[in-house]
User: What shape does this take?
Amino acid sequence: MTAASPSEPPALAGGGRPVVITGGSGFIGCNLAESFLRDGYDVVVLDNLSRPGVGQNLEWLKFEFGERIRPVIADIRDPQACRSIFEDAGAVFHLAAQTAVTTSLDDPLGDFAVNAQGTLNLLEAVRASGRTIPVIFASTNKVYGALEDLEMIELEDRYVPASPEIRQGIGEDRKLDFCTPYGCSKGVADQYVLDYAKSFGIPTAVLRMSCIYGPHQYGTEDQGWVAHFLIRALQGEPISIYGNGKQVRDVLHVADAVAAYRAVLENIDAVTGRVFNLGGGVQNAVSLRLVLQEIRRITGAEPLIGWGDWRAGDQYYFVADTTRLQRELGWTAKIGWREGLRDLADWLRRERGLGRPQREERLTA
Ligand SMILES: NC(=O)c1ccc[n+]([C@@H]2O[C@H](COP(=O)([O-])OP(=O)(O)OC[C@H]3O[C@@H](n4cnc5c(N)ncnc54)[C@H](O)[C@@H]3O)[C@@H](O)[C@H]2O)c1
Assistant: This one.
């Protein structure tokens, strides 16, 4: 074991109590856990390990941080199993979820049980504690719907919104338009989390995220497309593109996302009941085609592509306007998408054996 033991970290709202991260074995949760553990906090990871591959993230955290990481293998759908964990928390980051739109279309009830009911279970456990426990929720830009009303200009390699205002990104004031069962279940959870600040005075905040990518991501065709594309390309396997590949997303490296989550917790008294869009913003707005071009540079080989029909709820364009995060918390994305893609490729080569390592250091925001 190489358990790190830095000097005493600054107290959270809950004093010496642990940071609880649901979905802490998952991609973003594992990176968030690592960040707190490196700073000397104890972290409880609550996860049912249902996402294939994430057990390896948990093993890695245990190896790196020893007893300061406390795994709880439990299901957010089971209120009894989770109650004592939340009641004892210094702060809760809620990331456990059914994360794929495709799965939600196959099984809307299952999706609802995890994402909507599971979130309510968590909020009720926090409320029952009678203590002031901050809850920060990982929501999604899908709550703004497919944005079909936005007029697009189709360029050779990407869509661009006709409106100059929309080109600056989608702000938090955009109307909610839940779309697909995943969008609905996450949207319901998003609204409950905000309401528990209003109705019960629990300090909560919501981050509506664009596409996050980076180390520890077990991306699949159904969720985590940046990692999925790189994994496939490094293995010389074909990548399926649904639609014409001109869809635009503002991709964000997970180290920048972790910095945003931590900034929200540090300022929770000032931002309670608030929602923030979190993404790479205009400077990291890329089409799938652009990412594929960059992957060709990284791997030195032309990726193999298969083409399929558009998928339900797929936005032509989503770029977050992150001005609110910048203005209220001083947060900006620091890692550019090209550099970030290389970092993920290096991690995949080094840690998952998909090719040769090229660089040893890890990026931090
Ligand atoms: N990655 C992104 O680009 C992105 C974008 C928008 C929103 N989000 C949201 O961020 C959160 C984290 O996403 P991620 O990319 O790290 O996904 P992930 O799948 O890697 O992590 C989710 C974790 O939740 C766990 N989990 C699933 N169902 C559970 C249950 N019933 N009980 C307990 N644990 C359960 C999984 O095992 C997994 O470890 C999710 O809530 C997701 O909806 C992610």
Q: What stands out?
A: The radius of gyration is 20 Å. Confidence is low (pLDDT under 50) at residues 1-5.
